[in-house]
Write a structure and sequence with these properties.
Blueprint lengths: L1 H22 L5 H4 L13 H11 L3 E11 L2 H14 L3 E6 L2 E7 L3 H9 L3 E11 L1 H27 L3 H33 E10 L5 H17 L3
Helix pairs in contact: 1-6, 1-7, 3-7, 6-7
Length: about 230
């Protein structure tokens, strides 16, 4: 009877696990991180920041893209790097004329305003994405998976044969993998809410030569003759 109960329990839990796995699309937890080093310093961790944000309002992730023309590319890079450090942010990607950074959401607007002063803004966009429902669904799935793991551990104590033991351990391994994936999604969501994703592209401003200045002066003179503000 006990052996039959174990097999029945394994079969039931396998059905439950299949249902949980089917309701959530398979995602590579490493890909979710997009190559970013998830770290935080200063006023607290991203998990604490995101929980505070969740309590106050919906969970919104912000993505900002800016393009500015500057007089000196290297000087601009130096200033941006210093400001990122001052605002407890971190760089996730960097190239010759671009920096992508994570900035705490509470400092986002201040960082954007400072960036505007570094040169002429050619383009700027900000997008907010509401991930509240998705986040809460993942939290519920994680809770269900942890409960499922607890039931498998109980069955593991009841196993009498090697076959039952191997069967339960196999399902436990699958559940633990699903738990790790779900925890990765939740952690990444918390970081995304706590830290805005800002990309700044900066190109050196083109300056006209002596001949160009002459034609530019003629243009301003003609404009003044025909157009009054």
């Amino acid at each position: 009877m006990r052996k039959s109960a174990i097999k029945t329990g394994i079969s039931f839990l396998f059905i439950v696990l299949s249902s949980c796995a089917g309701s959530a699309p398979s995602v590579n937890s490493g890909a979710d991180m997009s190559g970013e080093t998830m770290r935080a310093s200063g006023s607290g961790s991203y998990a604490q920041r995101s929980r505070e944000s969740e309590n106050d309002s919906r969970m919104i992730t912000y993505t900002v893209n800016m393009q500015i023309s500057v007089n000196n590319v290297e000087e601009t890079r130096k200033v941006l790097t210093e400001k990122i450090e001052n605002f407890d942010g971190f760089i996730t990607r960097e190239s010759d004329n671009q920096i992508t950074t994570r900035i705490p959401v509470e400092y986002m607007e201040e960082f954007i305003n400072i960036t505007r002063t570094l040169g002429k803004v050619e383009s700027e966009s900000k997008t907010g994405t509401d991930i509240t429902d998705q986040y809460r669904d993942n939290v519920i799935r994680l809770e269900n998976l942890k409960n499922l793991r607890g039931r498998y551990l109980e069955l593991l104590q009841m196993a009498e044969t090697v076959a039952d033991l191997l069967s339960i351990e196999k399902e436990l391994e699958r559940v633990n993998t699903e738990i790790e994936i779900m925890e990765g999604r939740i952690q990444y969501a918390q970081m995304s809410v706590a830290y805005s994703n800002i990309t700044v592209r900066f190109n050196e401003r083109v300056r006209p030569g002596p001949l160009g200045l002459i034609f530019y002066g003629l243009y301003l003179g003609i404009k003044w003759l025909f157009v009054w503000n």
